[in-house]
Amino acid sequence: MASFKPTKVQFLPKLGEKVTEDTLYWKNYKSPVQIKEFGAVTKIDFSPLAPHNYAVTASTRIHVYGLHSQEPIRSFTRFRDTAYGGSFRGDGKLLVAGSEEGLIRLFDISGRVALRQFTGHSKAVHVTSFLSDGFRVVSGSDDLTFRVWDVPSAVELSSITEHTDYIRALAPSKLNPDLFVTGSYDHTVKVFDMRSGSSVMTMQHGHPVECVLLYPSEALLVSTGGRYVKIWDLLKGGQELVSLKNHHKTVTCACLSSVGNKLLTGSLDRHVKVYNSSYKVVHNFDCDASILSMAVAPDDEVVAVGMTNGVLSVRHRKHKKDKETLTSRRRRGPSYRVFVKGKNFVPRQDDFLVSKPVKQYLRKYDKQLKSFEVSKALDTALQTWTRTSKPEVTVAVIIELNRRGTLKNALAGRNEESLTKILNFLLKHIFDPRFSRPLLTVGDIVLDLYRQVLHQSPVVERQLQRLMEVLGREAELQQELLQVLGILDTLFASLTPRKEVLWEEHCPMSLNNHCVSVSSVSADVCRI
Amino acid sequence: MKFPKGMLEFTEQESFFRSPIGGLWMASIKFVLCTSGDSVKVYSTRTEEWLHSLQGHTNQVTGIALNPANHLQVYSCSADGTVKLWDFIDGILIKTFIIGYPLFAIYVSEKHEGIGFQLVAVHLPKSAEQEVEAKELSAVSRHISPNPSCTAFGREGQYIAFARNLQLNVYFFRKQKTYSFSLKATDKKGAKNAFTCIACHPTDDCIATGHEDGKIRLWRNFIHKKEYTYSTQHWHHNAVNTLCFTPEGTNLLSGGIESVLVQWQYGTGNRKEFLPRLGGSILHVSTSSDGQLFCTSHSDNKITVIESSFKVCGVIQGLVKGDAVLTDLMIDPRSKALVLNGKPGHLQFYSLLRDKHLYNLDIVQQEYIYEAGLDQFEVVKAAFDIKGYWLATVEERGQKSSDLEFFLKLWSYDERTQSFVLNTTITAAHTDRIISMCFSSSEETTMLVTIAEDGQFKAWCQGVDDQNFWSCDFVGSYHNLKPTNCSFSADSSLLAVSFQEVITIWSPDTWELLTTLCQPPGVIRDLCFGRLSCSKYLISTTTRNLLCCWNLLTCAFPPRMNIIIIYSAAMFVFKPNEPRPLFTHKNVCSEKIHRAVFVPREEPLNNCDESSQWLNRSQLYFLTQNMDLLTFSTATEEDRMLSSSTRLVIDDSVAVTPFYLLLGKHRQQQQKLNTPSHQAADRPQQPQGSVTITEEMESSEQEMNSEKEEEDSEGEMEACDSQQELRVQGSVDEVTPKLSKAQERELKRVRKTDFSWMAGLIASKP
């Protein structure tokens, strides 16, 4: 004897991106905390030391925030003009920043007044950084030079002019204190060796370079500029490895996550994109304004994004602890012990086994279908939760009823309230190509059944009016699509004059059929 | 053209209880008997195995009844006008009564017992009931329903109750009188009151009758004609097919199209128990003499054995008889089983070698609603790939109405569970009905091509962008013509799709249209590439009864290949290079042949006779209108089969002992394996119970050998088949002679047809 076969719910595959480990990882962030700064946030830098405070350079000041605080722990405000490029030294104790007036200031993280001031640049200094030995500072300026300063004596060690446009990107090597990479608006990326005092490698990015970034291994170099992100292989003499074009505006910043070295890029198009190791976009953060700067805390705890409207948006990672507090509030089901009770019993060799029939658990609508209670089954399937969050279940029950030839019985004899429920469902889903066929049948049957009494209820009448409107609109749309299809057909035909067989798109053809049925129902509605 | 007669004969494959009427009897707790064609088959209720059959009748067996005097004997009646008494455990014929009229049912009563003295109720063609007492007939009534379940003996054989249409008659033997009670034609509620079945209570004066509208009436007090009463009970929503009282009379069992066995408690009104979803509609219910077991026979060729606690304890399944075989007969390349429509929404796998139903594969996966006139999903197309790893099915609903629903499903073979599991469901594969589909035959990539009435053919591939499921690869059409059939060449380098009267040849690699072949007038119906050495030939049949063979290369010396055409009752075998048929066989069987299939043999025969050489590698199986499965066999084979079957009978007639139960299945299998080889006949017969270990080892060797042979013969299946159905409908007797003449004329025409056009075409090709 076969058991009852439950209603088969057709789950159609969702179009779009696939869910991978990476997307799950990057989705696991809380909604962002917004901190308002005084002007556009041009630079964010995380301290490499344990509390991982971060310096945010915006307008004429640099704020240092704690990881979880929204108020600055410390702020450096001794700038007469806009400050740029505040970045920490490797031990997290010193901070260096350039400014619009061409001065470079060096701060002790615990002090307030600048420890050193380096003067020499004639124009704004946008990028400053410590070299990895911690005793030298390198800075790039709009006067086309970059200079190296000695921290203890505050003197200029060297000044090199090789770029022909503003220098806006700088990345010192962490492995070698004499190496650093610069990017400029003259479309080039250069690698400098302080020992030789000149560039050792030049790469053509093709667009004004906004940001350069070295991978921890320092074999790969990332440069962003224009809409492009390019990866260069330094070990192969600066060969271009990949060129990514995922943003539709200038890419202003890039950084690496500390777990797995995933590349993140931010752009003026207000998106942060996360790439996997084969440089496919796996996740996308949306922001409110164009992004100028971005940084990721060690262990990916925090993603901080600075924008042109002066808003700093900070995303914190979700932890399991937070989840547990949520779930503990919920009603707890029976314990695990209940479910495994007796299931893990291993029979001995001479035991006689009496098998117990496995009980079949059925959904409520299936139980009702099993006992041929068709109206009740439809009611169950039309319950608010099912109807709104799982319309495919409702439609599956409708299809099942139609197959059993009892859909008409199930729809008949309903009052205004339940009829509005059905009509609302129709209004919402009748254009979904997955559902339209069964739902059009439902519409037909409803019209047939309630034709005589429709005028008694203004609510139902209004809904039918709306149904007619949307059906009319849909029919028009389909008409237009068919016209487009016709145009495409002629184009294809003219493209391949000698081939007898056309390559046809699969999907639009199904519209044809659909359109006819839509118009027939809308004609039906019109009649009423 | 003369062919030696007697070389080829049809033997009937098992299809048990061909006549479903009155064909089931629960002999004891151990055995169940059922009629099957011209024999009665005996099954064991415990092992569900076929034990043996009682053979001897020359026409269809129409009824069986247990001898009330001796529970080890059974009466059987046949349309050949004889009643035979058997010892069914040993399968021995005890007695034959010649009555001389075709018998349609038999009823036996205990009271009239005696030596050579039994009561037989006979339905004659002129519908009169006659009573036989030692070959003397006495007519009881002339108003007997042709339905044999409308007659029953009452308590201790005192009376006989029979019903026809709206009238219930009770004939009392003592009074020699007939009382008749009639119901009104229609109730106020529009109920149909016609009688469908009758059962009499074994100890009480009570007759239970089933009716067309599903009601059951219990008649009492009918001894006095005026004072009869009846009570009505209603559960079935369609006609009650069968009624049966348990031997003590405590319960009444009823069954109908709903396939629910209902047990009514006698005398307590409305208390009932149900056993739902048993299979096809219930045709017959029978109980064992001690009331421990019930068994039901179903319209889908199945017997269910049920314990008295209402639990199914056994299922005996034959070749499932569906409504129609919509899928062609197919051979599962893996198990060599015959695959065709089975239960509604299922495909059945039937092993021809072991002559046993293997399993049903649920394709539709929906609850089946037993309701007359409901439009159900049916499996209409199915196809296997060459290795048997993929199965494609099409199910369809709404053939009659305008809104057609159909799904294309792809199943992959799961080694672990040894069955097919659903891989992909494609909901809108085409915009209109799928006409045909075929898998590519190459080893490395599998591709499915479907053609549909929307004028397109589509190619489906697995594993586009690294996924496991199937998706559309190519859509093609040709001048918006409706495609009619498709076929892949043996090496899958070519795909032929026929559009009305044009055959188009495509390359599946580049999807280029390579060439078109124009057919002589007539829409192409079937299309098939040759196999093996004949792979350059493309054969097509048209609606104008023309068979065309295209040579796709230059014309070389054509090797052997066979084409079978089966008209409604005749068969022709051709070689591709000769327009004259190699072999013809007229009047293959009395019914229309619907489908045919070649089944590869385990080992090729070395028959050198030219007319039957085409049967060397494979066997041809036919399916007729009545779902009878027939096959061709050569004379030598026939002899062998006979010898082995007698052996089987002797072996299996031994009483069922536990030891036998342990070894019985194994032995049978072994013997069946032996049948094709000559060893079986030579081997000395082993006495039962002395089945030694050495023999078991021998048999396992045998199995291994046969497996090897299977592999060898795999893929060597030559020949292709195509069938045609005649459009003329009519009664069988009239059509057969007319048809053969028509075929002859057709044949002459074919012979006269000028094939020069074809030669011209071939020559024109480079």
UniProtKB/TrEMBL annotation, chain A:
WD repeat coordinates: 118-159, 160-202, 244-276
Top-level division of the source organism's lineage: Eukaryota
Alphabetical list of SMART domains matching this protein: WD40
Gene Ontology cellular component annotations, sorted alphabetically: nucleolus
Coiled coil (UniProt feature): none
U3 small nucleolar RNA-associated protein 15 C-terminal domain segment(s): 345-491
SUPFAM superfamilies for this protein: WD40 repeat-like
Pfam families, per database record: UTP15_C, WD40
Primary site of residence: nucleus
Record key words, sorted: Nucleus, Repeat, rRNA processing, WD repeat
Gene3D superfamilies reported for this sequence: YVTN repeat-like/Quinoprotein amine dehydrogenase
Cellular localisation: Nucleus, Nucleolus
Subunit structure: Part of the small subunit (SSU) processome, composed of more than 70 proteins and the RNA chaperone small nucleolar RNA (snoRNA) U3. May be a component of the proposed t-UTP subcomplex of the ribosomal small subunit (SSU) processome.
Full protein name: U3 small nucleolar RNA-associated protein 15 homolog
Taxonomic path: Eukaryota, Metazoa, Chordata, Craniata, Vertebrata
Automatic annotation (TrEMBL), chain B:
Main subcellular localisation: nucleus
UniProt xrefs under SMART domains: WD40
Source organism, top-level taxon: Eukaryota
GO biological process, one term: rRNA processing
The WD repeat-containing protein 75 second beta-propeller domain, residue ranges: 329-627
WD repeat ranges per the UniProt record: 54-96, 188-219, 233-274
Pfam (any one): Beta-prop_WDR75_1st
GO cellular component labels: small-subunit processome
Keywords of this entry: Nucleus, Repeat, Ribosome biogenesis, rRNA processing, Transcription, WD repeat
Transmembrane spans: none
UniProt GO molecular function: RNA binding
Nucleotidyltransferase in keyword set: no
Entry-linked InterPro entries: Beta-prop_WDR75_2nd, Quinoprotein_ADH-like_sf, WD40/YVTN_repeat-like_dom_sf, WD40_repeat_dom_sf, WD40_rpt, WDR75
Localization, UniProt: Nucleus, Nucleolus
Disordered: region residues: 670-740
Annotated Acidic residues bias: 708-719
PANTHER family: WD REPEAT-CONTAINING PROTEIN 75
Name of the protein in its database record: WD repeat domain 75
